Amino acid sequence: MEQNMENKFVFDSKIKMILYGMIAVGLIALLVGLFSEGVVESRFWANLLLNNFYFLALALGGTFFVAVHEMGESGWQTSIQRVPEAMGRFIPFAGVLMLITFLFGIHHLYHWTDTAHHDEILAGKAPYLNTTFFYIRFAIYFAGWSILSYYLRKASIDMDSDADIKYYKKQRILSSVFVVFFAITSSTSAWDWLMSIDAHWFSTLYGWYIFSGLLVSTIAMIILILIFLRNQGYMSHVNKEHLHDLGKYLFAFSILWMYLWFSQYLLIWYSNIPEETVYFVERVNNHSTIFYVNLVMNFVLPFLVLMTRNSKRMIGVTGVVALIVFAGHWVDYFLAIMPGVVGENTKVGFFEIGLTIGYIGLFLFIVFLGLSKASLIPKNHPFYKESLDYHTNY
Amino acid sequence: MKEITKYISAYYLDEEDLLSGIKKMQENNVKVLDAFTPFPVHGLDKVLGIRRSWLPRVGFIGGTIGALTGFFFQMWVFTEGYQMNIGGKPLLAIPSFIPVTFESAVLFAAFSMVFAFLFRSRLGLGAENKIYDVKSTDNHFVVVAGYEENKSDDVKEKMEAAGATIIEVKE
């Protein structure tokens, strides 16, 4: 498109107003949560944790997406790379919000922080699960993630003004460091923030299960942002071939998520040990609707709809599935957090939905701000030409 | 329309030349029947107008049959055929059936696709494979067009214009 020769996203006031509106809805929901009698404290903090974690996962997933493809020298994704790069900008913001959540709400979220009552099992886990070490890990995670994703994006943007291979080499090194760091921290952070809610329960697969959800929700978010940008007249170089590959990712990672979900479920169901089954007994008995809806949204629908080649190549179909998967993984985290923290008081009301809308607004605001600061085309990237010529056969 | 028994073929040494050559021939109204290459050439199917393979559909049908077979066979075995109490689980223990269901879906899909491919391509044990020209198994990319007595010089000329290195007529 000729009018976008500059290839920078113009963050105009119309989009800004919509996002401000969404953030305002979130703030109203926050006030409702704070002062309404109906929202108990545990429900308030659990929802903050849920949204913090979900949008942090999307931001981390964006950086992870870039890092993995840089390491794998993949050519097809270079032309869309600016979107996941911009998503990575949300990491430090999520860190601040997360810190506030933990500073004030940690006792409502994690019952292991209560050391006054002696508990044999928790005493055994105390070397890892104690508040001091919890905050130390928190600092390490966010320092590592923020710094690496910042410099990864910076190297990519520096390449635009200065066509030097050294930036590409720098990207490769940063990507490798990030992937190694993330391999460990993605698991440990999932233990810290989600698995330790049910502190007596543990599953060795949990980190991987959360990680697979992170991957598929990130792909869904990238697809949605790309479709939005294309509708606004940007990214005309992104065509069906790129969409097809993202659709394949969405399809494949939905299966991966289901595979890990089921691997965890099958082993626990089969061995039938009370201290392990307690996790699923609570969810199947008391939250059965959400339990099954989760599986349908995140596996059955994407699996059946995206199976054929044509549906992956149709923007409308892939977009709708991406939207469902995006909502589906919110439900997945909801199911992971709520039964342990809120228990019987779990509800989905204005507070939950409003807060999520606020977070979507904030997340997109930061992503679009990032997109508007740099060209949408990494024109000096060694694989840029390859990305434009890309064709996918199957 | 009488059956074509004679063919005229153009030879290329490079796949890029082959693709642009075919496009040029088609522009000049030469009816390109087929192309033989030493390795799969990206974009050749599109240029020749070959429809997408129906093998994925065979795979889907095979996979569905496999999944159903695997599931209902286990169901029959554990509830009717050979009832056995395993770890106090119910006889119809659906979660434990899923791995086998999945594997049999994969197995049936793979086999159905392999045999459908062999059948369609007339391959398999004892099959006699006609090779149009052994050169196409080495380093030549061959484009084949139908041969007609009165038009052959015209076609040859057009093939030459399309950058072919050798042009031959074959029975």
Approximate strand percentage of chain B:
5-15%
State Rg of chain B: 26 Å
The helix count of chain B comes to: 5
Greatest contact between two chains: A-B, 11 and 12 residues
Number-wise, the strands of chain A total 0
| Sheet with the most strands, sense and barrel status of chain B | 4 strands, antiparallel
Structural class of chain A: mainly alpha
Counted up, domains of chain B total 2
H/E series of chain A? HHHHHHHHHHHHHHH
Q: Which percent bin holds the helix content of chain B?
A: 40-55%
Q: What global shape of chain B is seen? A: rod-shaped
Count of domain modules of chain A: 1
DSSP summary: helix tally of chain A:
15
Molecular structure report:
The complex is a heterodimer of chains A (394) and B (171). Chain A has 394 residues and is an all-alpha fold. Chain A has one domain. Helices cover 75% and strands 0% of the residues of chain A. Chain A has 15 helices and no strands. Chain A is globular. The two termini of chain A are 28 Å apart. Chain B is α+β, with helices and mostly antiparallel strands. Chain B has two domains: 64 residues, Alpha-Beta Plaits (2-Layer Sandwich); 66 residues, no CATH class. Chain B has five helices and four strands. A four-stranded antiparallel sheet of chain B has the order 2-3-1-4, with helices on one face. In chain B, helix 3 runs antiparallel to helix 4.
